[in-house]
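ugh ok fine here u go
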Amino acid sequence: MAETIAFEGCKHLSYDIEKYDKRLILKALPFGIGVYWERPGVLCNGENKHVQFCQLRGRLNSKIACLKNAGFECSEGELVEHKVTIGAINIHRW
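structure:
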């Protein structure tokens, strides 16, 4: 069942699966604050499993990077509304 989540984040965040590894999974953060990419098969061996992707900087090693109230990773950040459709919603609990 697909669901669309609306949230605020930097305009440079990318949620286009066609640009990245097809094994990536979009997951929702609690309370509708955003979504992030999960990288299946990545173990905590120095590689981050939960990430964001930026059209300017590539992979950001934080699941909340550049989301509203989390701060921008660069000086090019600009807050916009994103609407992302996720297939099977997986709510991550901290």
